[in-house]
Amino acid sequence: MADQIKITGLKNDLQQLVKKIAVDDDSNWMTFLDAQRILCELTLLKFNNAIVLPAGINPPTNPVHDNPIAYNVEGISTEETARFSSLLKAIFTGDSEVQKKAAKDLLLLTEETPPIWVLFKSDTAIWKLLSPLEHKDSAHLHPDLQEALITIVLNISIHDEIKEMLLIPRMTTVLIVKAMKEGTLMTRRNAIASVLMLAEYDPNKSTLGRFGGVRALIEIIGSQDLLCLKDLAIQALSRLCSLGENRELTVFDGGIPVILERIKSGRHVSELLPILSMVSGTIVGSISLRERDDDVVPLMLRIIKESDLDGDKEACVFVLYNTYTNPFPVFHKAHYKLKEDARNSHGAVANLAENGTENAREKAKLLLEQLELV
């Protein structure tokens, strides 16, 4: 009954604010924030409406007060909903110490009460959660606070409905990308993991790429340290590169020399070759690879000869084929080295044309045919 009275009062307040916004062209930004706040409160109050359990099923009881716990339709108790609202408010309005404690408590809540993620299904909740990251520069942002908030993002982003709406406020993308580059190792790791998770939803791939996600991942892969982050960063870049525009961004953001250097050093070869293969299929990728063909051709031929992994060989022949047939063949020193290998019946490409996987054989034969024409 008390909730219903409060809902009625909030609706009346909202109605007045809407009228004011509709009539007054000079409404200030506080009016809009008040309307947004009331909508958020109404949403949370709606969550608090307890459902009627089927006959014969008794609700769980509170072990302290031995009173029935009311559960809403999502399976979250009204007590947990109220706690969520209180913690989110503390993160949004509190000072640094209050924010840090509230963020840690909310993180525990997302881990101990998995259904709590449904309460994040609004732009307002995400905005309030990440507001400390938006309004503080790196010098004034406590690393523990950033780590807790980014970990919350990771915990809730495993759910498809969250994936679909989390990046709608573009600032969310900016803050996640920033967290990949700044903060504790755990913050950066969880930010990368969030990108990997969010990229399962196709529209997010474009958003993450355009707002610096590809560049940030390339920087991590190419760094001299951060070894514990590279595996995850490569997985995330691979997923983003399933979208054509991100393959081009990988070239523009300096990805090809970074990838080649890692492969030459013998590190993450099997993980990076598929990315190089995808990137080589773009015009800008093939041009960039031809500019480095003194490195590319010997490296790809060596891997085809020496690797025991069919996937590595297949990726290498795709790189060679795309580099020298897309959009037109060229005549460089390395190109003649490739032709020399092609003329050798025991050469790497000829051998692959006979003994590789079906895809590798097809591409190797096409490459041999193309090399005969030029």
From TrEMBL:
Record bears the keyword Transit peptide: no
- The superkingdom listed in its UniProt entry is Eukaryota
Alphabetically sorted, this entry's keywords are:
Ubl conjugation pathway
Protein name as it appears in the record: Armadillo
Q: Which organism is it from?
A: Macleaya cordata (Five-seeded plume-poppy)
